[in-house]
Amino acid sequence: MQQLLFLSLPPYTFPATFIAFYGRQLPFLVTPIVAFLLLLLLSFHQWRHPKDKRLPPGSMGWPYIGETLKLYTENPNFFFANRQKRYGDVFKSHILGCPCVMISSPDAAKVVLVTKSHLFKPTYPSSKEKMIGPEAIFFHQEIEQIVLKYLPAWGDTTINTLQEMKRYAFDVAMISAFGHKQDSEMNGIEQLYQCLEKGYNSMPLDLPGTPFNKAMKARKLLNETLRRLIKERRETEKQSGGGRGLLGVLLGDKNQKIDQLSDSQIADNVIGVIFAAHDTTASVLTWLLKYLHDNEELLEAVTREQEGIRCRIIKADRRLTWDDTRHMPLTTRVIQETLRTASILSFTFREAVEDVEFEGYYIPKGWKVLPLFRTIHHCADFFPRPEKFDPSRFEVPPRPNTFMPFGNGVHSCPGSELAKLEMLVLLHHLTTRYRWQVVGDEDGIQYGPFPVPKKGLPVKVTPRKKKAP
């Protein structure tokens, strides 16, 4: 009846009538609103100033979001350097839904990764753990065949370097995982993984339309696809020592009197292999082409080194071997300097397993601890003129704990040697057979979150014209 009365009143009388009717109820409406605002203000204060026994200085950013958007949208060199200058080598922050402590000195990093590693377990933000799989672990073959498969198609054509490097890295990961490759199956897995990777560093908001939600849907489909392949492999292959590839090893020998891994555990580990070998390797390879393109004299020097190895291979009528890759000192230094300058992995995640006293500060149990590799790699005290690309700096071994592109300690990247091998093999064939020119004049870096040249470094690839003897 009251609603009908309001609707029947002239428009100019509605505000007065509304106030007259609800005026007596305003205190009851305002009170919960004020209480909610006060509670929000208190939560925000506690967010920025939790109960502390001297937490490291720093900013926690906004509730839940923290400083994630800043970290993944601006140059990480600036992000870390600004906070280091303001707060020191140890400071707190909040990214990807996790309160964390960032450390930027080699000695402190060694404590977390080596001397007191038992206090800081390897971990990831919950969003990444869900996508990779809670049962994944982190760990060579046929790499040269993959290189030779791609390179002939690159002659006299324009490619997106990052996309091609991702395809290459994905194939290496698949060969490592399955021991063989079936294009129809692998193409489907690759497409699902491409959708999954877009959510790796997103905020874990499982709402329709969010990158995280799309990624988790792709993760479910990817898991179903892998479990189907695992079931087929179990049914069709006789296990003798595990078969070929990581999948054969994980399947194990059915005659062994040990518990076999479940299909879910195997699927998580295969996804873990792809994750560990895909974006990081592709990003480093993209930077390698960029730095060699920008340093013509260095490119020619690397080519001379690789031509010498190629001549020995042809003379001996054999293929490139592991021992050949151990005799590429200049090429190896170029890779080392690329790993330092690009610092694809800006940091790694560890988690305090208990309340820890660290560098005079208190780190609560469950907080993430992030050694900042990028900051250490770009410190002028350890690498003079750090912005300059200079492979000669690695003619002398760097100071301990100042060069950690694959981490440090017992939990350093188990795929580091495979990654370096991929780079050496690719550079051997690429420098001796091709040249490339960057297309367009846009120079810069994009972050997503790994830093890569803008637009993925589009280049025009042409067969190399060898100089007459």
Class of the domain at 143-463 in CATH?
Mainly Alpha
Provide mean pLDDT, rounded. Answer: 80
Q: Uncertain runs with pLDDT below 50, 5 residues or more?
A: 1-22, 42-49, 137-141, 239-243
* CATH architect. name of the domain at 143-463: Orthogonal Bundle
Rg is 27 Å
Number of helices: 19
Strand content: 5-15%
- CATH homologous group name of the domain at 143-463: Cytochrome P450
Q: Based on helices, strands and strand pairing, what is the structural class?
A: alpha+beta
Gross morphology is globular
User: Care to count the β-strands?
Assistant: 12
Core attributes:
globular; single chain; three-stranded antiparallel beta sheet; five-stranded mixed beta sheet; disordered N terminus; 12 strands; Cytochrome p450; alpha+beta; 469 residues
Set down the secondary structure blueprint.
Blueprint lengths: L1 H7 L5 H9 L3 H23 L19 H4 L4 H12 L2 E6 L2 E6 L2 H10 L4 E3 L3 H7 L10 H8 L6 E4 H18 L4 H15 L13 H26 L8 H7 L11 H15 L1 H16 L1 H21 L5 H4 L3 H14 L7 E3 L3 E3 L2 E3 L4 E4 L1 H5 L38 H18 E5 L6 E3 L3 E3 L4 E6 L6
Parallel strand pairs: 2-8
Antiparallel strand pairs: 1-2, 3-5, 4-12, 5-8, 6-7, 9-12, 10-11
Helix pairs in contact: 7-11, 8-9, 8-19, 9-12, 9-13, 9-14, 10-11, 11-13, 14-17, 15-19
Kindly describe this structure.
There is one protein chain. The chain has a five-stranded mixed β-sheet. A three-stranded antiparallel β-sheet has the order 4-12-9. It is of the alpha+beta class and 469 residues long. Helices cover 51% and strands 10% of the residues. The chain has a domain at 143-463: Cytochrome p450 (Orthogonal Bundle), CATH 1.10.630.10. The protein is built from 19 helices and twelve strands. The chain has helices spanning 2-8, 14-22, 26-48, 68-71, 76-87, 106-115, 126-132, 143-150, 161-178, 183-197, 211-236, 245-251, 263-277, 279-294, 296-316, 322-325, 329-342, 373-377, 416-433, and strands at residues 90-95, 98-103, 120-122, 157-160, 350-352, 356-358, 361-363, 368-371, 434-438, 445-447, 451-453, 458-463. The model is unreliable at 1-22, 42-49, 137-141 and 239-243 (pLDDT under 50).
